């Protein structure tokens, strides 16, 4: 079976009325052009070269406008009406509304493009689920993962991936559990919101967080936000503490955290929120993921759900980076092995974030409980509470010279921190903390 491709040039008509914007219509046309020029689809109109003998290796999936009912599976009536009414405004009003919005712009075509983007993602997922294609990519815009059930923000109008996930569950009885893996450099706050109480969708996001100072500046992108109610444990945030991430950091996170959790969850379908703004060359993301890095992540995810996977474009603003990255992902979807990674080793800072996430996830996943710091967080929380009440002792982190930080490694009184110096020694991979007084009285 072939790999599917959804692209519709009408989606380029959503554009900023005045000036320039990183969420540029060319983002999807350059990816499409790359695919055509590599001979993966045949489009005489676009490439100017007609070859009727070669129908292309990818199967075209037609985009269509998502219906009000489909969008209503995730979004409020107010939000749908807000988007619909954009068609009634003139340019001057749309510019004013753009200035008042949270990082999102509007024009006369925004509503139509948003419905096409959403409907394109839905059709892409459905074609994979129905077995028409083995897997597929939706090259669509505007993106979706910041759009919450009630608010369009962060370049996003409707949450394409969330609406697709809900539609799949509604229309395909065999698809009960869906993994949404979000490797866009920004936290998909909208996706997290939509399924925060829902165990039938596991959301895993790797993103720059920096204590909530990186867009969308939402403290809920932290690793401690794991879902609520029935959905507790089904929201996994991997919050990087700075930019500059390399292939090795992402591969490490996938091998140590993402894939073990994903395998234990055992989804029936995988949707990738594929922003390419962690790609090398992206000025917003400031990271260095190579096309080979994205290819390896795709390759690993294809082992899930009998390969039933739809990749859906989110962010990514360097035109050559996103087209090279998307092409590398497509080649893996089509069956090629990923290229070699040049720098496969994770940095201590990234390894530390991953370890902290494992320590949190051990509450919810059997695999993680075997690899945590050995002491259940619940037990540690109880210890802290009792020792604080009785002896005014609180926890302190221990930093190893390698850069690894172990939270809650020591419990001490606040007075002790002024009086002692702590040395950490490593012996056969066991870290030992030694405390000595520096003031004697
Ligand atoms: Zn992004």
Automatic annotation (TrEMBL):
Residues 21-333 form the Histone deacetylase domain. It is found in: Nucleus. GO terms for biological process: negative regulation of transcription by RNA polymerase II; pericentric heterochromatin formation; positive regulation of transcription by RNA polymerase II; rDNA heterochromatin formation; silent mating-type cassette heterochromatin formation; siRNA-independent facultative heterochromatin formation; subtelomeric heterochromatin formation. Its EC number is 3.5.1.98. It catalyses: N(6)-acetyl-L-lysyl-[histone] + H2O = L-lysyl-[histone] + acetate. GO terms for molecular function: chromatin binding; histone H3K14 deacetylase activity, hydrolytic mechanism; identical protein binding. Gene3D superfamilies: Histone deacetylase domain. It is an enzyme of class 3 (hydrolase). GO terms for cellular component: euchromatin; HDA1 complex; heterochromatin island; mating-type region heterochromatin; nucleolus; pericentric heterochromatin; rDNA heterochromatin; SHREC complex. Its main location: nucleus. Keywords: Chromatin regulator, Hydrolase, Nucleus, Repressor, Transcription, Transcription regulation. It comes from the Eukaryota. Transmembrane segments: none annotated. InterPro entries: HDACs, His_deacetylse_dom, His_deacetylse_dom_sf, Ureohydrolase_dom_sf. Belongs to the histone deacetylase family. HD type 2 subfamily. This is histone deacetylase. It comes from Tuber melanosporum (strain Mel28).
């Amino acid at each position: 079976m072939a790999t599917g491709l959804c692209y519709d040039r009408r989606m380029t008509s959503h554009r900023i009325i005045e000036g320039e914007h990183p969420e540029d219509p060319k983002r999807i046309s350059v990816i499409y052009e790359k695919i055509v020029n590599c001979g993966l689809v045949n489009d005489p109109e676009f490439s100017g070269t007609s070859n009727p003998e070669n129908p292309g290796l990818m199967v075209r999936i037609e985009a269509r406008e998502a219906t009000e009912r489909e969008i209503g599976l995730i979004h409020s009536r107010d939000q749908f009406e807000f988007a619909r009414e954009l068609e009634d405004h003139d340019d001057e009003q749309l510019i004013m509304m753009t200035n008042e919005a949270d990082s999102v712009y509007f024009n006369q075509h925004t509503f139509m493009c948003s419905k096409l983007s959403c409907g394109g993602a839905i059709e892409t997922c459905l074609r994979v689920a129905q077995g028409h294609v083995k897997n597929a990519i939706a090259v669509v815009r505007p993106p979706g993962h910041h759009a919450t059930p009630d608010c369009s923000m962060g370049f996003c109008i409707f949450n394409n991936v969330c609406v697709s996930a809900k539609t799949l569950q509604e229309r395909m009885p065999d698809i009960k559990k869906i993994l949404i893996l979000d490797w866009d450099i920004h936290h998909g706050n909208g996706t997290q919101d939509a399924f925060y109480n829902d165990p039938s969708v596991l959301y895993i996001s790797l993103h720059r967080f920096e204590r909530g100072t990186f867009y969308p500046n939402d403290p809920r992108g932290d690793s401690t936000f794991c879902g609520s109610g029935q959905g507790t444990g089904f929201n996994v945030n991997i919050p990087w503490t700075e930019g500059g991430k390399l292939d090795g950091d992402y591969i490490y996170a996938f091998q140590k955290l993402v894939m073990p959790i994903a395998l234990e969850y055992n989804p029936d379908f995988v949707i990738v929120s594929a922003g390419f703004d962690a790609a090398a060359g992206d000025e917003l993301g400031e990271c260095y993921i190579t096309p080979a890095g994205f290819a390896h992540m795709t390759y690993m995810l294809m082992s899930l759900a009998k390969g039933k996977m739809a990749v859906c474009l989110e962010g990514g603003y360097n035109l050559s980076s996103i087209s090279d990255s998307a092409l590398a992902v497509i080649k893996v979807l089509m069956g090629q092995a990923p290229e070699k990674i040049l720098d496969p080793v994770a940095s201590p800072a990234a390894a530390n974030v991953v370890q902290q996430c494992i320590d949190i996830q051990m509450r919810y996943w059997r695999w993680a409980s075997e690899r945590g710091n050995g002491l259940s967080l619940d037990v540690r929380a109880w210890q802290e509470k009792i020792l604080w009440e009785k002896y005014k002792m609180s926890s302190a982190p221990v930093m190893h010279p390698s850069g690894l930080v172990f939270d809650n490694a020591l419990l001490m009184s606040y007075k002790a921190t002024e009086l002692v110096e702590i040395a950490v020694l490593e012996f056969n991979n066991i870290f030992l903390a030694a405390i000595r007084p520096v003031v004697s009285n």
